[in-house]
Amino acid sequence: MDEVEVVVAHSERATLRVGDVFLKVDADQARMDVEVEAMALAPVPTPRVLWREPPVLAIAAVPGTPLGRLGEPSTASSAAWAAAGAAVRKVHDAPLPPWSGPGVGRLTPDLDGECAWLVANGVLPADLVTRNREIAEAALRPWTPVFTHGDLQIAHVFVDGDEVTGIIDWSEAGRGDALFNLATLTLGHEEHLDDLLAGYGAAVDLDVIRAWWSLRSLLIVRWLVEHGFDPAAPGCEVDVLRSRM
User: Fold this and answer.
1) Which residue segment(s) compose the domain that 121 sits in?
2) Number of folded domains in the chain?
3) Of 101 and 143, which is predicted with more confidence?
4) I want to staple 195 with a disulfide (CB 3.0 to 4.6 A). Which of 4, 48, 81, 134 is the partner?
């Protein structure tokens, strides 16, 4: 233990790594409550909570390496992707958490507001936004809520060989759309969707997954820009939107 690594830091929260310990600093105690409870409820490997002293949560590192990273090719095997799909299915089949999540009624105005902002501020071309807003419409339908991770990015699933060793960052967990989790995990890595679904073991509507790729990307571009991230980096959100054209 000879240095402190800043894993991520922005105005909402920060995560530091010191050896095999992660220190998560979050001013929103309700969000931290969700993370701790979700990790306790999830029927998959999650980080071990070492201690909690608000606004800091200390958790142990999980073994293995991330399934991949957005903007980079995933070197994980087809079997590892299938194992990730099976792990996601376990979460979706688990009892619902006691708290709710965003529904269609909240998503629609949020999406329309973000689309208007992207065009008005010249962040993205109007035709790109319009086309992806049309695709996103397929996700804005009633769904049967399941236990969802809420932010199941590819970097949040850890594997060792062909085994899932941990799923991290549960602060957005709640009741939600199963296909949103599957779409988030394959965002920018759609070539691995078939392997993921083979492990998931249930038929899904591929048009809805594609719709979630567009919807999530449209919703997050402004947040990324305002918090110092680059959604236009190769393979990231803007490229995902362009690939729909």
Assistant:
1) 62-243
2) 1
3) 143
4) 81
